[in-house]
Inverse folding.
């Protein structure tokens, strides 16, 4: 899976980089750095190889960086919209995962897709005055069953190869 | 004010490669060298290294 946040601290201010070196340093693809060049990353293009000054690259990456966002209480992050949303209708389900925590499950008001947020019981109590939360038992899983396999003929076959 | 000289950047690049691979200097040492050269360039107004004279270096050392 592609990484979306590149670490600009890997770049050194007083060094210069080719496209390949810059990509290796930050762990991006070469195409990503070439795209940045087209988008306006300054470089020494008088002859090949093109050189990107470390200082310029740091400044460019700092300009592109979007700060991490935290969801306020009673909201979820919609992965489709890439926005923090309040659950549709002020309603949400709390699906139990273990004795202490679970997943808050709600609908996005904009795109009607499911949003999830990991939450502990103490956090759940804090948002109960904002949201109408229904506690739901989680669906049974295969691991919960004592006999995950229903293939009974395996026992019989073992006997025939003796 | 200009912040780099294109030819100097290419010369510096070759010099750092030389230090790292031929002289086998550590990364930290090469970084220190790079910072020192950058400071020298700043003081001389990003003058072309081909116009280097010993007097310039002496002046830089005097501060």
């Amino acid at each position: 899976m592609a990484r979306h946040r590149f670490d600009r601290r890997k770049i050194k201010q007083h060094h210069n980089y080719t496209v390949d070196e810059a990509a290796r340093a930050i762990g991006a693809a070469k195409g990503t750095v070439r795209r940045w060049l087209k988008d306006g990353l300054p470089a020494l293009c008088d002859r090949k190889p093109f050189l990107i000054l470390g200082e310029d690259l740091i400044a460019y990456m700092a300009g592109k960086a979007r700060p991490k966002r935290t969801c306020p209480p009673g909201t979820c992050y919609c992965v489709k919209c890439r926005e923090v949303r309040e659950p549709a209708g002020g309603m949400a389900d709390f699906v139990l995962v273990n004795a202490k925590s679970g997943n808050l499950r709600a609908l996005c008001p904009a795109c009607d897709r499911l949003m999830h947020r990991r939450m502990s019981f103490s956090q759940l109590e804090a948002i109960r005055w904002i949201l109408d939360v229904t506690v739901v038992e989680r669906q049974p899983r295969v691991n919960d069953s004592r006999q995950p396999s229903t293939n009974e003929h395996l026992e019989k076959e073992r006997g025939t190869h003796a | 004010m200009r912040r780099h000289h294109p030819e100097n950047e290419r010369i510096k690049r070759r010099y750092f490669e030389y230090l790292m691979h031929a002289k086998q200097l550590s990364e930290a040492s090469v970084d220190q060298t790079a910072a020192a050269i950058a400071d020298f360039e700043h003081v001389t107004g990003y003058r072309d290294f081909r116009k280097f004279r010993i007097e310039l270096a002496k002046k830089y050392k005097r501060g």
Summary: Residues 96 and 137 of chain A are 6 Å apart (CA to CA).
